[in-house]
Amino acid sequence: MDDIAEKCGISKKTIYRHFQNKDDLLYEAIKLEAFEVKKNIDRIRLKNDNALEELQKFFKYINNVARVISPSFGRDLKKYHNSNLFKAITFKDKIIIPFVIGNLEKGKREGLYKEDIDAVEICKSYDELSNAVYFNYYFTDSSINSKSLEFLSTLFLYGLVSKIGWEHLHKP
Q1: Burial 37-55 (b: 16+ CB within 10 A, else e)
Q2: In what residue span(s) does the HTH tetR-type domain sit (predicted)?
Q3: Nearest CA to 79 among 26, 118, 120?
């Protein structure tokens, strides 16, 4: 709290007037970020012609977010602020997961994704793998995490697409 107060140019007393403790401050920061993520996902959803373009822009956005969040943040959240970790996961489950499942169903209807994919299972698998990349104790460099997430997203995307989707991916 001392560091936060110093960087904000205010006293700790002022911070504690607005937040009960560190966990409360952290929760509010997570909530604010979740709101920003939702706003950007809604923007992505509205601006794209098809599910494939939508998913590509979503992956680009999420990878950019991952690039600026230190991997130690996830580890510290898990180690010292477990209740906030579960709240962050809840936001992800309410915002990101439904978006991706909806995108997968939309892509199947558009013929851009394989008809036989199970949107819920595929989404859960991607979520587990991306969590493993992000929360992995061996990764301490956010650029490595970002590159790993980009690679995982590319694999995920190519595993989804139908022949028509493949052609869309390779349009000049």
Answers
A1: beebbeebbeebebbbebb
A2: 1-37
A3: 26
Query: Is a pLDDT exceeding 50 seen at residue 137?
Result: no
Written as one letter, the residue type at 26 is: L
Q: What is the pLDDT of residue 104?
A: 96
The answer to the question of residue 3 being in a domain is: no
Query: Is residue 38 situated within a structural domain?
Result: no
pTM score, two decimals?
0.82
Residue 28: φ, ψ to 5°? -65, -35
3-state secondary structure of 161: strand
Distance of alpha carbon 169 from alpha carbon 154, whole angstroms: 11
Measured on CA atoms in the order 119, 143, 43, 166, is the torsion positive or negative? negative
Say if residues 151 and 129 touch (Cβ distance below 8 Å): no
Q: How far apart are alpha carbons 29 and 124 in whole angstroms?
A: 26
Tokens representing 94 are 């309410």
Tokens of 4: 């936060």
* Token output for 133: 């990349």
